[in-house]
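From the methods appendix. Each design record in this collection lists the tokenized structure first, followed by the designed amino acid sequence. Records were kept in a plain field format so they could be parsed without special tools. The example shown here is representative of the layout used throughout.

RECORD:
FOLD TOKENS (59 positions):
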């Protein structure tokens, strides 16, 4: 079985990256950008609604 990935984008510094949903906290938890250390809810870092649905569905 293939592992799903979600695409993330920092709204402040525009860094983009991918991660597996299991490696991330819950979508409503505070998350810190690995580049600029901005703090927001993880859901705000998802690039698309589809990425957010994937994140919610696989956690």
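DESIGN:
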């Amino acid at each position: 079985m293939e592992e799903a990935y979600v695409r993330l984008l920092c709204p402040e510094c525009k860094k983009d990256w991918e991660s597996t949903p299991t490696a991330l906290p819950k979508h409503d938890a505070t998350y810190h950008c690995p580049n600029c250390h901005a703090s927001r809810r993880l859901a705000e870092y998802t690039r698309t609604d589809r990425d957010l649905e994937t994140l919610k569905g696989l956690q």
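APPENDIX NOTE: Residues 21 and 58 are 6 Å apart (CA to CA).
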